[in-house]
Design a protein that fits this description.
three-stranded antiparallel sheet, about 325 residues, 12 strands, Jelly Rolls, five-stranded antiparallel sheet, Arc Repressor Mutant, subunit A, alpha+beta, 13 helices
């Protein structure tokens, strides 16, 4: 986020994207949050972000003082005291923060927000709201303003402060803190549904869903996740996506900020982490089923990316007080 200079109007996404050589930054939870699944900051400790960007996680911006603008999905939405804004993963957006403004920025992984949905983040657009109502405010932020009165705004700020307090608890309280943070998070989203649910349902019935990701990208991600145990090539993925390899490579980079190989490796590691945490399959079996091949190669790549061996990672979830949520 960016603390705007009042004497210098901030760049809009169109201004920025029109600049020669401009690159849209792509942020991860590891770079912007306190943990792999949740993070919260306020105006006193938010990380600088002066230009349009995207992130791989869900984001909620709760504004309690000051006025600014949310540039999102080709639209501009006003932000006033009592405005709550929602951002889908990989959607380019920008909120220039004003001097003396007060706000909270909440970063949430897909696994933490929607623990019961075993889907890739790119497949969530196909999930009906009846199954995952948490997605409602995120889907229609581009056409709705989620505004609250003064009393509700005070309560929203209290929820944010509670989440911030729990996020600072010691690792021994990790499970309790996770549950309490998620309860406050769902409370916040529930307040949006109570105040604005009719408008969300109307947008859904009118088909106003923002098409965040191109169909070719969705087909590619689906092909990758369904074939992790196989050798995956850009050419095969392009054929499954009904585009040329060159075009697919360009689409993936422009839509996600990542190369085909980076996406494949990321999906393989995430699948391996899930299997290590929640199954009794051996590391060798998991390495084969996720496409890493020989055990030595799996162990080397896992440690290189995750920072621990597969067995050490598994032990985290076997110890008393292990984390409740998949990271």
């Amino acid at each position: 986020m960016h603390r705007a200079n009042p004497s210098n109007a901030p760049l809009t996404p169109l201004d920025y994207e029109g600049k020669k050589g401009a690159v849209i930054r792509n942020y991860t939870m590891a770079a912007r949050a306190q943990s792999a699944y949740f993070g919260i900051h306020d105006q006193s400790n938010c990380l600088p972000n002066p230009v349009p960007h995207r992130h791989e996680y869900f984001q909620i911006y709760v504004n309690t003082l000051g006025e600014t603008t949310h540039y999102i999905g080709g639209q501009q939405r006003p932000i006033r005291p009592g405005t709550v804004s929602f951002v889908l993963p990989f959607l380019v957006h920008y909120i220039p923060n004003v001097a003396d403004g007060k706000f909270h920025v909440i970063n949430i992984s897909k696994e933490y927000l929607l623990p019961s949905l075993n889907l890739d983040v790119f497949e969530l657009s196909e999930v009906p709201l009846a199954r995952a109502p948490e997605l409602g405010p995120f889907r229609f932020q581009h056409c709705l303003d989620f505004q609250f009165d003064e009393l509700d705004t005070e309560y929203l700020q209290e929820l944010c402060e509670r989440m911030a307090q729990e996020s600072q608890q010691s690792p021994s309280d990790d499970t309790a803190s996770n549950l309490l943070i998620r309860s406050h998070l769902l409370n916040l989203i529930g307040m949006v549904w109570r105040r604005h649910g009719d408008k969300i349902r109307l947008c859904e019935s009118n088909g106003m869903l923002l098409q965040s990701y191109k169909q070719s990208v969705l087909r590619c991600i689906r092909y990758i996740t369904q074939n992790l145990s196989r050798e995956l090539t850009l050419g095969d993925a392009a054929q499954a996506s009904h585009v040329s390899a060159t075009h697919l490579a360009h689409l993936l980079k422009s839509e996600t900020g990542k190369t085909f190989l980076e996406i494949v490796t990321e999906r393989r590691i995430e699948r391996a982490k899930t299997l290590l945490a929640f199954t009794s399959a051996s590391a060798a079996e998991i390495g084969q089923s996720t496409g890493f091949g020989e055990p030595n190669n799996f162990a080397r790549r896992f440690r290189q990316i995750v920072g621990s061996t597969p067995l050490a990672y598994r032990r985290q979830f076997q110890d008393v007080g292990a984390r409740t949520w998949v990271e």
